[in-house]
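Example 165.
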Amino acid sequence: MPLQRHEALRSLSRDHHVALQLARALQSGASPHLRAHLPADPKALIAYVERVYTTELAPHFGAEDAVLATAVRGKDAELDRTLQEIEAEHASMTALVASLGALGAAEIDPALDRLGRTLEAHVRREERECYTRVQEVLDDAALDRLGDALGRHFVSLCDTGAPSS
Ligand SMILES: [Fe+2]
Ligand SMILES: [Fe+2]
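Predicted structure in complex with fe (ii) ion:
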């Protein structure tokens, strides 16, 4: 039976539902009902993706890179490697989103497809591999501290637009 998601990681796991919905809708061949809530016009679609990136994905990536990675660093060599790879994937998706506005018409769909596939694989890996391992590596007290740190991180984002140091 899969390990239940600890309270400390539940808000990040909830973000993954939003990310997965976007990821699946962006992939070429997505079913019409997945595409239905996305703008049909390519420029409007890019603006939508940029907005979701700014409001949902970037804060989530930042919390994983800054708070989650800090909480587990040095406790498990394989998890350290996984978190480094995850951070590199965040950077590559960030660069991909930043490049969308400059793409020619024929390049937009393949780029969005690539973003969707990368984001889906990324989120699934985090859920199956990374978050589960975090729960194995951290004891209950450390998980509670992680939950508190994530809470403070997101509150500081709401207050100032930037995480507190
Ligand atoms: Fe991530
Ligand atoms: Fe994530």
